[in-house]
Amino acid sequence: MSKLLTKLWQIFEQVVFHYSYPRYNYPLYFVAKRYCKFYENNENGNLSTNGELFFITSILKQIDPEVLFDIGANKGEYSQLILDQFPDCIIHCFEPDSRVFSILKTKYKNINNIKLNHLAVSDHNGKAKFYLNKDPGLNSLFDMNNIGYHYDNMLSTVSLETIDNYCKTHYIKTIDFVKIDVEGAELSVLMGGPRMLSGNRIKMIQFEYGHAAISSKTFLKDIYDLLLGYNYTIYKIMPLGLLHQPYSPYNEHIAFANYLAVNSKVKINSEYLINRPDIYRQVPII
User: Fold this and answer.
1) pLDDT at 23 > cutoff 80
2) What's the CA gap between 189 and 272, in Å, rounded?
3) What angle do CA 113, 163, 53 make, to 5 degrees?
4) Which CATH number fits domain 45-282: 3.40.50.150, 1.25.40.10, 3.40.50.620, 3.90.650.10?
5) pTM of the prediction?
6) Residue 117's beta-bridge partner residues?
């Protein structure tokens, strides 16, 4: 069987992988690239189709969350999805952009279990430059123009606070779920929480990794190493479940995606775990 597959692949290569047919190369590349994004669930920011909504409505229910952090809350879309599912939970939202923070204040002015914080979460307390984009979802502590983007950014100064300091001053002993979407500063956020991480005080952490990580010179391996050191298991969030994804250098393709780190004390229901070959370990890269 393997010989037959090898022969079929050789024929396919001879027909398709051929520079003598340049007009066919780009359409094939375009379709293949789009399918790879679909298969790996990369570069999909739609909460309804990229697995984030499914995670909230199905997997997060397992731990019946009471205390949650939304770091990089933006206009509150993610927090609202959580609130819809868990109306009695307490959500601590962190958003440094004054423009969208005012939207959050208006949106949640009569909701006592939403705690709004006009600051950025990082690895130290203090102040920092903050680059404001016309699209608030692209705001960052790092200048994206340094890595080839052409944004018309405005510069502001924001307050910084660590997870550990915030939890200490607000008497928070445990966090059920943390969502981090901070355009390249994800590692800094995690580095600011050694006490909470080392004490098994955070059950689940969702983080985004993508193009913005170039600006902070962060590899996915840096985040893996930190979280694995605190006994977390890391999954990739897929449209209908979680894919356990051990680190591979081939994951460093900077196509943005969402990952979930699960504390060793938490067990995920097997029905939500996707069982499929690891393409970076099973398929030889030639």
Assistant:
1) no
2) 27
3) 55
4) 3.40.50.150
5) 0.90
6) 94
